Amino acid sequence: MRVFVTGGTGAIGRHTIPALLESGHAVTALARTPQKAALLHARGARPAMVSLFDRAELAPAFAGHDAVLNLATSIPPMSRFMSAAAMRDNYRVRTEGSAAVVDAALEAGVGRVVQESVSMLYRDQGSRWIGEDAPVDHYPLTRGNFAAEAGAHRFTESGGGAGVVLRFGWFYGPGAEHSEQLFALAGRHIGTVLGRPGGYVSSIHLADAASAVVAALEVPAGTYNVVDDEPLTKRSYAFALARAAGATAWLSGPGRAACLLGDRLTSLTRSLRVSNARFRAAAGWAPRYRSAREGWLATASVLRT
Ligand SMILES: NC(=O)c1ccc[n+]([C@@H]2O[C@H](COP(=O)([O-])OP(=O)(O)OC[C@H]3O[C@@H](n4cnc5c(N)ncnc54)[C@H](OP(=O)(O)O)[C@@H]3O)[C@@H](O)[C@H]2O)c1
C-alpha cells in the first residue's frame, strides 16, 4: 500500500515507519522542518512538508495514497505535564489537526484513516476487564481524544472508506522520553506509582504499538484497544521497571497522593485493566511482549547500550 504518516518522527511513529517499510509499504511522512525531512528521508520515507492544520495543503499531499495514519500528538513531557499551555497544543493537534486530516483524506479519495487515541479515557473499573464498549469519561484531558475519534468515525460515515481508532495503552520503550526518565529514576532506586498500588495499568511496548499500526491497515472500521496481554498492577509495574533497571526500589511514590493533583493526572491515576481481545481477533495481531515485565527487560538492554 501507499501510506501517508503524520507524527512519523514521534515515539510511535519512529517505530512505525521501519515496520511499514519491512511489510512492503511505500511511506510518505509529514515533516515540519527541513531537518525532520532529512531524518525521514534517511529512514526510507518520502518527506512531505505540509501543515497538519491546512486542509488545502494536505489534500494534494494525500492524493494517490491508500491510507493515512494520523500519529501526530503533542503530549507535554513529564516536566510540563501540568502546563495548560502545553496541553493546548495537544488539544489543537487532536481537534483542528485531526479534522483537517479527515477532510483532506475525503477530498483526496484515500481509502482508510487510522487515528491514534488512548485507552486512558475509560472510567476506572477496578479489577474488571475493559473492552471497547465499556463506559468512558469526559474529563478535560480527554476532550481532544474524543474529537479525534469522532473524526475517524465521520470518515467511515461519510462513505470515504474505513475509519479506524486505536486506543493505545501507556506506551513505553526506547524513544519515549517519559520511559527513559522513569528508567533513570528506577536506576536511582525511585519507583513511580501513580494512584492505588493495587490498581491496574495497561501498557504497550512501542515496537508492539508500531506492529499494531501496520495491522490496522487491514481491519474493519471501528475502535480497537491496543494494549499488551497482561496489564500489571501499578505495584507490579514499578517492580518490573526496577528489576529491569537492576535496582531495588527504596522510595516509591506518589501513589494515592497523585490523585490530589486533579484532572491532568486522572488519566494515569485510575485503574484500567484493558483487553486487547477485539484487535487480536480482527487483525490476527499479537504483541511481542506480553506484559511490561518482558518489555521492560528488552527496553533496558537497549537503553544501557
Ligand atoms: N502517549 C503516552 O503513553 C505518553 C504517556 C506519558 C508521557 N508521554 C510523553 O509525552 C511526550 C510526547 O509524546 P507524544 O506521544 O506526543 O509523541 P512525540 O514523541 O512527541 O511525537 C509527536 C509526533 O507528532 C508530531 N507533531 C506534534 N505536533 C505537531 C503539529 N503541530 N503538526 C504536525 N505534527 C506534529 C511530532 O513532530 P515533530 O517531530 O516535528 O515534533 C512528532 O512526530 C514524550 O515525552 C512522551 O514520552 C507519552
Briefly characterize the structure.
This protein is an alpha/beta fold and 305 residues long. It is 40% helix and 20% strand. The two termini are 35 Å apart.
Briefly note the structural class of the backbone: alpha/beta
Number of domain units? 1
Ranges where pLDDT stays below 50 over 5 or more residues in a row are: none
The largest sheet is: 7 strands, parallel
Bound molecules: NADP nicotinamide-adenine-dinucleotide phosphate
Question: What portion of the residues fall into strands of 2 or more residues?
Answer: 15-25%
CATH topology: Rossmann fold
Tally the beta strands.
Answer: 15
Write up what this structure looks like:
The chain has 305 residues and is α/β, with parallel strands linked by helices. It has a single domain, classed as Rossmann fold (3-Layer(aba) Sandwich). The chain is built from eleven helices and 15 strands. The chain has helices at 13-22, 34-42, 55-62, 84-108, 143-157, 177-187, 206-215, 234-245, 266-269, 277-283, 292-303, and strands at 2-6, 26-30, 46-48, 67-70, 112-118, 129-130, 162-168, 170-172, 190-194, 200-201, 203-205, 222-226, 232-233, 251-255, 273-274. The strands form five sheets. Strands 3-2-1-4-5-7-12 form a seven-stranded parallel beta sheet, sandwiched between helices. Helix 2 links the parallel strand 2 (26-30) and strand 3 (46-48). Helix 3 crosses helix 4. The longest helix is centred in the first third of the chain and has 25 residues, at 84-108. It is globular. It starts with a strand and ends with a helix. The mean pLDDT is 93. It binds NADP nicotinamide-adenine-dinucleotide phosphate. Residues 6-11, 13, 30, 32, 36, 52, 72-75, 77, 93, 170-171, 176-178 line the site of NADP nicotinamide-adenine-dinucleotide phosphate.
